[in-house]
Amino acid sequence: MKPIPPTTRHRLRSHSVILALTSGCLLLTALIAHAQTAPEQLIGVTSRFLEQAVASHIENNKIEGRTEIKVADLDPRLVLRACDKELIARLESPAQPIGRVTVRVRCEGSSPWTVFVPARVSLYRTVVAITRPLKRNSILTSEDIALIEKDVGFLSQGYLTSMQQALGKKLTRSVVTDQVLLPNQLEHAEVIRKGDQVIINAKSGSVVVRMPGEALSDGAPGQQIRVKNLSSERIIRARVTGPGMVEVAM
Q1: Is beta strand 197-204 parallel, antiparallel or unpaired with respect to 245-249?
Q2: What is the number of other CB atoms lying within 10 angstroms of the CB of residue 214?
Q3: What's 197-249's CATH class?
Q4: Which residues neighbour 10 within 8 Å (Cβ) at sequence distance 6 or greater?
């Protein structure tokens, strides 16, 4: 058997060193990769937190509806150290977990960090909507409105969940087909017109005195209007309580 020349032995040793260094680098890379918090983990933590937060919000406020939660995709290049403690999630904004939300996910371990995860929580409820174009001052009937399912997370001005909340009310502005009806688009319709003959109920405790009167202005339930007392010819202010009925305190 021929002896290995010194130069060959040197090449073999160098090759072994290179292999060892390469293996070490690969192992170090694998350990570093293993010691990271993946974006998928952040999405999972955010989803679980929102599921619990939304369920509590719906139960506490006795809301009927269905929800959908979608956490935004995070940048795959996001690199965070692995946390040696359980990740903590809380709602950053807004105050309620509905609509566009931001969840703060924090690691309070030996290498702390914080990341903000955006998400969208859709809350679908049955709400009142317009079935045909209507002009301002229109009085709503059952043919003008219907119940449809909508995501109410972005209806910041409110909404109606019952047709009874809208029937007989007057529109304060024009509306179009399929438009969700907002509370501030409605007001009570007048049940008394100027010149109408009315009954004035004057109350004092359990005593009620009725007398005839004449409305000097239009009025909706709850409104104060000017009324002429036909018995005394005096002009008074009275509260509208219904069609042809007003009330004053003695």
Answers
A1: parallel
A2: 16
A3: mainly beta
A4: none
Lookup: tokens for 92: 């950053």
Does the domain made of 125-188 have the CATH classification 3.90.1210.10?
yes
This prediction's pTM: 0.66
List every span in the chain annotated with CATH 3.90.1210.10: 125-188
User: What is the per-residue pLDDT across 190-247, written as a single tens digit (0 to 9) for each?
Assistant: 899 999 999 999 988 888 899 999 999 999 988 999 999 999 999 999 999 999 999 9
The DSSP annotation for 29-92 comes to HHHHHHTB--HHHHHHHHHHHHHHHHHHHHHHTT---EEEEEEPPPPTT---BPPSS--EEEEE
CA pair distance 130, 176, nearest whole angstrom? 7
CA nearest 192: which of 235, 231, 240, 147?
240
The closest of 63, 68, 115, 123 to 90, measured between CA atoms, is 115
